[in-house]
Amino acid sequence: MSRISVRGFAVASATAVTTVGAVVGVAAGGTPAADDNNFEAAAADTTLLADIPAGQQAQVQTASLTQQADAQASAADAAAKKSAEESARIQAAKDAKSKKQAAEDRIEAERLAEKKKKEEAERASRSSVRDASSFAAQGSYTVAQVQAMARQMVPADQFQCFSNIVNHESTWNYRATNPSSGAYGLMQALPGHKMSSAGADWQTNPATQIKWGLSYMDSRYGSPCGAWSFWQANNWY
């Protein structure tokens, strides 16, 4: 069999195509043709497509074009697969980012809702308390009466802390006096006359003492519960 090579087509027989591309020779008996470096030498010993019988040229061209089409289809499939994988990766990243943002937005919304709820509760609690001046003065008060006044004056969420301090300081005795220091009243104010800032009747009116005690705890510790936390750590406030 003669060695045949055609620009764009290479044949090992009159009917079989072995390579598509530049000039490539196929030796008789199946020996590989020269590589691209020997292009000129191989071309010198080749037969042009025009030298192949006309009836066989169409078969050679058809087989070669089929191989080219298969190669192009394979390349296109690979490119499409790569593009699809990249698109999927990008979409997955976008989805993950969207889910993360949605979760963060939900947490923030819940935090704001809880904060609003707490603020509304605090406002409601403050609006429900009575001022010291709303209580009629009496000659004396029982512990139960003093505690009832405090419940009406101290915000509900702060009352237990306030009560804890008063229990430790005076056991709810509005006339309690420390003979050594001079501390006086429910909160054992030192000196006692500091409570005159809340009212001139600070010595005899527990409502005035409660008013002063609330103001003191709020200004110094932020709240009665803040004062109670300090008291627990130091045994004074």
Automatic annotation (TrEMBL):
Basic and acidic residues compositional bias, start-end: 86-129
Stretches for region Disordered: 86-131
Keywords, A to Z?
A: Signal
**Which residues belong to any copy of the Transglycosylase SLT domain?**
161-226
UniProt entry tagged with the keyword Signal = yes
The record's listing under Pfam families reads:
SLT
Signal sequence interval, chain numbering = 1-22
Q: Does the keyword Signal apply?
A: yes
Q: Provide the protein name.
A: Transglycosylase SLT domain-containing protein
Lineage of origin: Bacteria, Bacillati, Actinomycetota, Actinomycetes, Kitasatosporales
